[in-house]
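Lab notebook: predicted structure, single chain.

Context: the supervisor wants predicted structures on file for every construct in the current expression panel, including those that have not yet been purified. This is the next one on the list. No modifications to the sequence; it matches the entry in the shared construct table.
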Amino acid sequence: MTKELVAALFSGLVLGSLYALMSMGLALVWGGLRVLNLTQGTLYMLGAYAAVLAGRSGLSPVIGVLLAFVIIGVLGSLLYVGPVRRVSARPDHENAVLLLTFGLATLGEYAALVAFGPQPQSVQTLVHGQFTVVGVAFPWNSIMMIIATIMLLTLLGVVMKWTRFGLASRALAQQADGAQLVGINRHRTSMLIFGISSGLAGVGGVLLSSYYFVTPYIGQNYLLLALIVTILGGLGSMSGTLYAAFLVGLIQAISSLYLGTRWSLPLLFAVIIGVLIVRPTGIAGRVAQERL
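Prediction complete. Output recorded below exactly as produced.
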């Protein structure tokens, strides 16, 4: 195994971590509410700008991550309580929510463009330094990103499996009317789903800001990849989404090494088409139909 391949594999894990946080939010909302929240990319971008503002204010990176989760999470909850809840009452609410969130995402992107300008902005890495193994440098910032993602998603898995909220979310996904009949507050659960998924996007944006330049368009660029990951993993499947996120990251990194960056996306789409031909419902499609 060459040094270049080791570096590419590590880069793929970092990319997978970035994709996982946004994609998991999409999977969480789809699994619980059967709608796609296209504001996820904008919330990702707002998390990145929150890191920019926190850096300017001299706040520690840990505080920046916590603030991003709370503030963006509250914003996501308000998004449900306000427009999404009203639109969800329509018979064709799936399409209505899709169009609504697309419009809100576009509005948020324009607002960020006005507030911060089009110029790329940078944030200092959350953790400095690196160590070298077999001639390959491993930045501590990237390692921290992978560890933080694994910890967050593990915590999310515990919450979804072992808490009352997780049980309510699964019941809502399987049969919303039946869940209400047994005393589950549909709107409160939906609000929490939007809040948690948005908070994950905010944290993802903070981590992203220490790895790439921040612009108003960065969220929409990653939203496309997050949608790919969510579909590949199986709509609504958290485990499938996690596998797909790291698979997509590794495919991009390795194909860029051997074929060049211009072939990265074509190869990725070829793999996705192949997987969906064999498994039309995605990697964990069967799970997606039964549970979150």
